[in-house]
Design a protein that fits this description.
This protein is an alpha+beta fold and 306 residues long. 37% of the residues lie in helices and 21% in strands.
Length: 306
């Protein structure tokens, strides 16, 4: 299985970032949503593609628990059901209540890993292959990396806040009626020249919220340090620590009872994390594609006031 690359900050175009930050700051203060959208849709200001650091997951069992709750498409076959069972899974994944948890998706993935490793000319261990794929199926890690990158680019000078749209995995997979499911993961697996290859694509639906609106909903304490930390991200030496602190603020806001379902973003952003892996050579490329979908951002009905 390929070894994860050491974490390193994604490169950022300081000149483009500074221009975009100034425009977003000016237009957000003036409540000019049209110009905010126009700026975000300008690829000369906001690049569509960003290089991400290699994925790093400390707890493989936790990654399997996460993946067991995911909808997915595996080589075009859709898996939309999650199944609990009474016997342990291959890696012993258990749900939060201690019961073993598995899914048809993971069962099929393990079987395919075994079949591929049995093919002539393929020298790979099926459980190492399965484990390497689980690293890439961790939505929490993928969402964190996507949110960090969009936060670096899209917060103006602190007037805007990037938050994931609340989905069921943010609630720990609790009440199925309480929130929507995240978009399905797309996984392609194939063998070429004796090596197993994979392409994993995971979409994250994010929102840009005006900080003033969130503070008006009682989240003023949570965002007290937001402006200073966003500005600190412009300093490369302070970027890593500032992003960690911003991530903690985002997590607390998302989990706050004050952040309720009627809250709608001012702007919707889609962030697709895509990774291509060659398990034979251990090489991988991980990218983030950022878009501002017109169908989600058309009109003002979708961005009604609180």
């Amino acid at each position: 299985a390929p070894k994860p690359q050491p974490p390193s900050p994604a490169p950022a175009g300081s000149s483009n970032q500074a221009q975009l930050a100034a425009k977003l700051s000016q237009y957000t203060r003036g409540a000019d949503r049209r110009q905010v959208l126009r700026s975000l849709m300008d690829p000369s200001l906001l690049p569509r593609m960003h290089t991400l650091r290699g994925v790093w997951v400390e707890d493989i069992a936790a990654a399997e628990r996460e993946a067991a709750g995911e909808r997915a498409a595996l080589n075009g076959v859709k898996f939309l059901q999650v199944k609990k069972q009474s016997s342990p899974t291959s890696v012993g994944a258990k749900s939060r209540d201690g019961n073993p948890v598995d899914s048809y998706f993971l069962q099929t993935l393990r079987e395919i890993c075994g079949h591929m490793c049995d093919m002539d000319g393929v020298d790979a261990d099926p459980m190492a292959l399965y484990g390497g794929l689980l690293l890439r199926l961790s939505r929490s890690v993928s969402e964190r990396d996507a949110t960090e990158t969009v936060t670096q680019w899209c917060c103006g000078k602190g007037e805007l806040v990037v938050l994931p749209l609340k989905r069921r995995h943010h609630d720990g997979g609790g009440d199925p009626s309480s929130s929507k499911l995240a978009q399905p993961i797309d996984l392609e697996l194939y063998v070429e020249s004796g090596n197993v290859h994979a392409k994993v694509t995971m979409r994250h639906e994010l929102g840009l919220f005006r900080r003033a609106d969130l503070e008006g909903q009682g989240l003023k304490r949570e965002f007290a340090a937001w402006n200073a930390l966003v500005l600190a991200c412009q300093n490369e030496g302070m970027r890593s620590s500032s992003l960690k602190k911003l991530g903690k603020i985002q997590h607390e806001a998302l989990c706050s009872p004050k952040f309720t379902s009627p809250l709608k973003p001012w702007v919707f952003v889609d962030a697709d994390v895509m990774e291509r892996i060659n398990f034979g050579t251990g090489s991988s490329v991980r990218m983030l594609h950022v878009s501002v979908p017109e169908e989600k951002n058309s009109g003002y009905a979708a961005v009604k006031k609180w």
